[in-house]
Amino acid sequence: MGASKKNIRSFRDLRVYQAGMALAMEIFELSKTFPAEERYSLTDQIRRSSRSVCTNLSEAWRRRRYPAAFVSKLNDSESEAAETQVWLEFALRCGYIEEESFEELDERYDHVLSQLVRMVMNPDSWVIKYR
């Protein structure tokens, strides 16, 4: 479980970051079983997009002084999460993952997306305010 908002001192303290990191690591392990011919397409793409959820969150965190830049990086993170869901669907349809695994990962990405949307819709509670 993550820290309350007032105890968050780093992007690593964000529950959405922790969830994204856990998902990226699961996808890394899962993608090890993909066929070799997928190495430069599906495998690379799903690993890249799943990792980009977290990297964009870390960049957003460092841009909290600038609300528009903060929201922009959160939107990038949101886009990467949605892209990962599509790659997961390709993996399912190609027979590389089971339906149960797809459903569980897809649902967890929906949760990550909902957390990101809440942050985007309420950036003032996250940005650094100067006096």
Shape: elongated
The succession of helices and strands, N to C, reads HHHH
**Termini, distance in Å?**
32 Å
Tally the beta strands.
Answer: 0
CATH architecture heading: Up-down Bundle
Structure classification: mainly alpha
The tally of domains stands at 1
The CATH topology comes to de novo design (two linked rop proteins)
CATH level 4 superfamily: 23S rRNA-intervening sequence
Largest sheet: none
Tally of alpha and pi helices: 4
Helix coverage percent: 55-70%
On the 0-100 scale, what is the average pLDDT? 93
Radius of gyration: 16 Å
- Strand-residue fraction? under 5%
Highest CATH level, the class: Mainly Alpha
* Low-confidence runs of at least 5 consecutive residues: none
Explained architecture:
There is one protein chain. The protein is mainly α and 131 residues long. The chain contains 4 helices and no strands. It has helices spanning 15-31, 39-62, 67-93, 99-121. It starts with 14 loop residues before the first helix and ends in a 10-residue tail after the last helix. Helix 1 (15-31) packs antiparallel against helix 4, helix 2 (39-62) packs antiparallel against helix 3 (67-93) and helix 3 packs antiparallel against helix 4 (99-121). It is elongated, with a radius of gyration of 16 Å.
Short description:
The protein is an all-alpha fold. It is 69% helix and 0% strand. It has one domain (5-125): de novo design (two linked rop proteins) (Up-down Bundle), CATH 1.20.1440.60.
